[in-house]
Amino acid sequence: MINSVVYVAVGLIVLTTVRIVFGCDFADKYVISNQRVTFHDAYVRCRQHGFDPVEILSEHDEKEIEAVLKNETNYGWQNAFWIFATNLGDKKNYYWLDSGKPLFYSKFAAGQPSNVEQENCLEIWKTSSEIFEWNDAPCDTKLRFICKYRQL
Ligand SMILES: [Ca+2]
C-alpha cells in the first residue's frame, strides 16, 4: 500500500516535470499578457504577478518563445512583445534587465538595433514571412509582454 502511494507520487512528479520541460507549446512555462503597456510597466506587472520578466539567453530559449508566440499573435511590429533587455544603462550595450547579463544570443532584424536615440528597449515580433525577429523600440511604446513562471 505504502509502495503504491510512493509510485503514484513519483509518477506525478515525473509527469509534471516532463510537462513543464517538453510541453508542446510551453504554455505552462511562459505567460503572455493580453494587456499593452510600456516596457517598465510590463516589467513591474510580471513581478507583481509573481513571474519573472522573460530573458532570451540562448537559441533554445528563443525557440521556446517562438513556439508560444506562434499561435498567439498576428504579424507586424504593431503586434510585438516586450522582452526585457535595454541599453538605458550606457546607451550602447544591451543587458537583460533582471539578471544584468549581456546579450549572449540575439536575433535582430536586418538593420536592427537601429540605435535611434529614443529606441532603448527590445521587442520581438513576427514578420509576414512567419519569422520572429528582434528590434529596439521606444520604451514608452505600449506592447504586450512575456513573463516566465519562476522555476523551483
Ligand atoms: Ca529599431
TrEMBL record:
Pfam families listed in its UniProt record: Lectin_C (PF00059)
Keyword flag Disulfide bond: yes
Keyword Iron-sulfur included in the entry's annotation: no
Keywords: Disulfide bond
Domain C-type lectin: 30-148
Superkingdom field: Eukaryota
Protein name: C-type lectin domain-containing protein
Organism, scientific name: Rhynchophorus ferrugineus
Lineage of origin: Eukaryota, Metazoa, Ecdysozoa, Arthropoda, Hexapoda
